[in-house]
Amino acid sequence: MRRSAKRGLMLMAASLLAAAAAGCASPKASDAALAIAPDAPPAYRVFFDLDSAEITTDGAAILDQAVSSYRQLGTVRLVLAGHADRSGSERHNRDLSGRRAAAVRDYLLGAGVAPSSVEIEAHGERQGLVATPDGTVEPQNRRVEIFVRPD
């Protein structure tokens, strides 16, 4: 994306966020602003069962929303960050988080998202939403976060 186009997206995001904070924008507009802001929180979170990389029914519904947003936003990059809880070894959890991110990628590609728009990361057990001691099962930490970034 050219620098001027990227700057335009950033200005649009800042304007939409300011309008939302002032109560002047629709929730859809503020969601769009968050989706294209470079340091925004994850746009979507897909959770997984214990020691699984299978997309659940709830996960598929969230991914369908992500695909819809992707189509509306146009040229964006989706960063898929896989995570695991601390119930297994560090190596196992890193591999599992990569398989989770790959499962989400495959779902998105199957729904028509361009392969060049997707990148995956495997964080293992290092970035839990809930801090836990080693060996602890924590459902909130078993997830893939989808970040929407300008391309």
Which bin fits the share of residues in helices? 40-55%
Low-confidence residue ranges: 1-35
CATH architecture of the largest domain: 2-Layer Sandwich
Overall number of domains: 2
> Helix and strand succession?
HHEHEHEE
- Describe the main β-sheet briefly: 4 strands, mixed
CATH topology of the largest domain: 60s Ribosomal Protein L30, Chain: A
Can you say what the CATH homologous superfamily of the largest domain is?
Answer: OmpA-like domain
Q: Give the total of beta strands.
A: 4
* N- to C-terminal distance: 6 Å
| 3D shape | elongated
The amount of beta strand, in percent, is: 15-25%
CATH top level class name of the largest domain: Alpha Beta
Figure out the total of helices: 4
> What's the rounded overall pLDDT mean?
81
The secondary-structure class comes to alpha+beta
Radius of gyration: 16 Å
* Order of the strands making up the biggest sheet: 1-4-2-3
Describe the protein's topology.
Elements: H1 3-21, H2 27-36, E1 44-47, H3 57-73, E2 76-82, H4 90-110, E3 118-122, E4 143-150
Parallel strand pairs: 2-3
Antiparallel strand pairs: 1-4, 2-4
Helix pairs in contact: 1-2
What does this structure look like?
- The chain is of the alpha+beta class and 151 residues long.
- It has 2 domains: 37 residues, no CATH class; 110 residues, 60s Ribosomal Protein L30, Chain: A, CATH 3.30.1330.60.
- It is built from 4 helices and 4 strands.
- The protein has a 4-stranded mixed sheet with strand order 1-4-2-3.
- It starts with a helix and ends with a strand.
